[in-house]
Amino acid sequence: MTKIDQALQACRQDVSAQPVFYDLFLNSLFFIPTVADKNQSESEDQGATPLLVEAEGNEYLMLFDTIKRLTDWAEDGAKYVAVPGHAITEMSLPNLYWAMNYGTEYQKQFEPEEIAWLKDIVRQSKEDESAPKES
Prior knowledge:
The chain is an alpha+beta fold. It has helices spanning 3-13, 18-26, 67-73, 85-91, 112-130; strands at residues 29-35, 49-50, 52-55, 58-63, 80-84, 97-100, 108-110. α1 (3-13) packs antiparallel against α2 (18-26).
């Protein structure tokens, strides 16, 4: 059981634990499976295209908190990028869903409204950090 699993479990048992879960999510590293680009050579580093999975008419970005969970879901040779939760939040597109740790006991689905709320938190945090400090 990982820290994010523990936080999610606590959150499911007691709603007041949600801030701890979301804080941990935003500050954790996630592994995102990527699509192999046949036109890109191995030496080219032009960024990676995340794999999106369609289910029930929605597109999901798959997020895993360990490489083992990603490879259990995909396959051992799966390509991936590692991205912190706050960066995933900032880059996420409208109407995109997230599936965290899919296929495990501790999976969680994030809906677009929840992701938009997280975007606001990250934006506000950045504004607070860049605001001039009063002495």
